[in-house]
Structure prediction request, 286 residues.
Amino acid sequence: MHQDFESILKSSGQSVTKPRRAVFDALTRADSPLKNGEIAKLTPSIDRASVYRTLELFAKLGITTTTIRGWTPFTELAEPFKPHHHHMICERCGVVEEIESDTLEDMLTILASRHHFTLRSHTVELSGVCASCSKNLPQPTSL
Amino acid sequence: MHQDFESILKSSGQSVTKPRRAVFDALTRADSPLKNGEIAKLTPSIDRASVYRTLELFAKLGITTTTIRGWTPFTELAEPFKPHHHHMICERCGVVEEIESDTLEDMLTILASRHHFTLRSHTVELSGVCASCSKNLPQPTSL
DNA sequence: GTCCGTGCAAAGCGTTTGCAGCTTA
DNA sequence: TAAGCTGCAAACGCTTTGCACGGAC
Prediction:
C-alpha cells in the first residue's frame, strides 16, 4: 500500500517526505471523507501550509478525490488505495453509506464517449432519507 | 418561471425580497454554475451577507444545487428552473458540457433503494478529456 | 403593526504566499 | 550537491455574525 503510494510520487518526479506520508497515513486510517481541518488536526506535527500543499498535490496526482457537503470540501483516498465507490448520504441523520456498481461505472463511460470525452474520473453523490429515518419521521418537516 | 420561484418561497413561509429576486435573476441569466463571488459581483446592489444568506436558503429549499471544482463551490439553478442534468468537464481546456440520461436517473434510484434509501437529490460530475484536446495533445503531460 | 430580512461593519476562519533553512534524491 | 520541500509567519479573501433599521405580509 505505502509502496504504491511512494511509487506514484516518485514516478511523477515528486519527493517522498514526512508531511506527505503523514497526510497519506491520516487518510488511510480514516473510514470516511475528511475536511481539510480534520486532516490538519490528525497531523499535528505537520504545518498547516504543508497539509494544504500536500492535499493539492494528491488531488492532482489522483491519489485522492474531493467531494462537497454544504460548502465544505471533503477528501478521501481514491483508487488504488480504496475500492472505487460513491456515497449515499441521509439528509436527516447524516449517515454515509458507500455505494458501488459496475453497471453504473460502465454507463458513465458510455455517456462520456457519447459526448466524445475520454472519462478519467467522476463523482456520484446521492442524498436522501435512510430506512430508519423515514420510519421514525414519516412526515418530513418542510425546512 | 419567476412565479414558480416566488411560490416556492411563499409556500415555505419565506418572504419575496429584492436580494432573493436579484440572486435568482443572476442565476437565471448564467449559462453555467457560478462561484459565490461571481454571484455577488452580478448583484452589486445587494450586500454580500445577503447574497450568502440567500444562497444558503436556496440550497435548503432545493432551488439550487451546488457542485465543487477544486475546493470552490459552484451554484446553479435546480429543477424546475433548469432541466435536470449533470456535468462533463474537460480537464485540459475546462469546457463544460451538460449531460442527461433517463437511464442514469433510473439506475440511481434503483441503487438508492437497494440501500433502503429514498433518493431525494444527487450530483454526478464527470471529468476527462474532450475530443479536440485529445486530438491536439495525444500524449498527456504527467502533471 | 409585526415579524422577518437587510445592510452595515467587524470579527472569524480557512487558505495562500514569500522566504530562509533543511531534506531528499 | 542541487533541487525541491518544509516550517514559520504574515497576509489575504471568503464567510459569518450582531444589531438597528426598513420592508414584506
